[in-house]
Design a protein that fits this description.
CATH class of the largest domain: Alpha Beta
Helix content: 25-40%
Number of strands: 13
CATH architecture of the largest domain: 3-Layer(aba) Sandwich
Strand content: 15-25%
Number of helices: 11
Largest sheet: 5 strands, parallel
Number of domains: 3
CATH topology of the largest domain: Cobalt-precorrin-4 Transmethylase, domain 1
Shape: flat
CATH superfamily of the largest domain: 4-hydroxy-3-methylbut-2-enyl diphosphate reductase, catalytic domain
Distance between the termini: 31 Å
Structural class: alpha/beta
Order of helices and strands: EHEHEEHEHEHEHEHEHEHEHEHE
Oligomer: single chain
Length: 317
């Protein structure tokens, strides 16, 4: 059974930065360090940090007054920041800088008094954090059909932003629908981060060379689910697996008996260790090496917040 690895895959610069922030906070302040929501959407990462003393909470009332709390890479609403301040919490912002850029766009559009639309998935932490940057209403659009139901006059001007982890194809369709119905002002697909775009492009290219695509990632990871959808739209069977344990022996033996070519990628919050474990599980007992496909080499790094240290140059564009 031939196994191919997409390039790039796995951790992006924003995820690397967020994890590093929690690790540095533990080193500087000692345990416990509280983290508001999952720092990134991967249970292996969360459990690893929990073992080192991180405590994950979904409401700030669970954080003792005066404690250290880290905001997740997905960003938080202004109301959460104000609550942290009122509880005298030492808060450290691990919001991905590319998400922070979207926050700035929302505030800028709101200051101009424009009706606001966000393209994204209801309930996702990034969407909640972005729409919570302004007091003005923000209309959420998750699919093309939602555009027709926006309570705004035909042809009226509006501004839009997008969640950073969306499907490029889906977003283009929604943007087209907005521009057909309204005088839409927005960054087109520029809000979708470089890592999301690079990984989707790599999966689309890999799909023509394999029979099955495995996306290693958490089920609550938006960018991982989008990778699975991209592969399926390219006409290839695709499965989202959290780790090697999600692949049964019967699946592995059936793929092997059919001589299938298996392509593997990973969401932006998935550690490379989990990818290697999947490869090892697929290749047992032969232990054949996987083939690394060509792709974009990423080298972006983001600075850590003041007081925590310098940039971590591991991943990027």
């Amino acid at each position: 059974m031939d196994v191919f690895l997409a390039q790039p895959r796995g951790f992006c610069a924003g995820v690397t930065r967020a994890i590093e922030i929690v690790e540095r906070a533990l080193e500087l302040h000692g345990a416990p360090v509280y983290v508001f929501h999952e720092i990134v959407h991967n249970q292996w990462v969360v459990n690893s940090l929990r073992e080192r003393g991180a405590v994950f909470v979904d409401q700030l009332q669970d954080v003792p007054i005066g404690s250290v709390v880290v905001f997740s890479a997905h960003g938080v609403a202004d109301a959460v920041v104000r609550e942290a301040q009122s509880r005298q919490l030492h808060h450290i912002d691990a919001t991905c800088p590319l998400v922070s850029k979207v926050h700035q766009q929302v505030r800028r559009f709101a200051a101009r008094g424009m009706p606001l639309v966000m393209i994204g998935h209801a309930g996702h932490e990034e969407v909640v954090g972005t729409t919570g940057q302004v007091q003005a209403p923000v209309h959420l659009v998750s699919q093309v059909e939602d555009v027709a139901h926006l309570p705004l006059p035909q042809g009226s001007p509006l501004a839009y932003v997008t969640q950073t982890t969306l499907s490029l194809d889906d977003t283009r369709s929604i943007v087209d629908a907005l521009q057909q119905r309204f005088e839409a002002l927005g960054p087109h697909t520029d809000d979708i981060c470089y890592a999301t775009q690079n990984r989707q492009t790599a999966v689309r290219a890999m799909a023509s060379q394999v029979d099955v695509v495995l996306v290693v990632g958490a089920r609550n990871s938006s960018n991982s689910r989008r990778l699975q959808e991209v592969a399926e739209r390219a006409g290839v069977t695709s499965l989202l697996v959290q780790d090697a344990g999600d692949i049964t022996d019967s699946q592995r033996e059936r793929w092997r008996s059919l001589g299938l070519r298996i392509g593997i990628t990973a969401g932006a919050s998935t550690p490379e260790l989990l990818v290697r474990q999947v490869v090892q599980h697929l290749q047992e007992p032969d232990d054949r090496p996987a083939t690394q496909l060509d792709g974009v080499k990423e080298d972006v790094s983001f600075r850590l917040p003041p007081g925590l240290g310098a940039a971590v140059p591991r991943h990027g564009r």
